[in-house]
Amino acid sequence: METPTTDVTAINVALEPDEATRHRACDLNARLRKAMPEGFALDDTHAPHITVLQRYVRTSELDNVLNAVSSVVAGADLTALELHATAISHAEWDTPGTGIASLLLGRDPRLLALQGRLIAAVAPFASPKGTGEAFVTGPGEPGVNTTTIAYVARFVPDHCASNYAAHLSIGMGRRGDLEAVEAEPFEPFDVRAEAVAVFQLGNDGTARGRLQTWPVPEGKRTRPPRGR
Question: Which tens digit of pLDDT belongs to each residue from 59-71?
Answer without folding.
Answer: 999 999 999 999 9
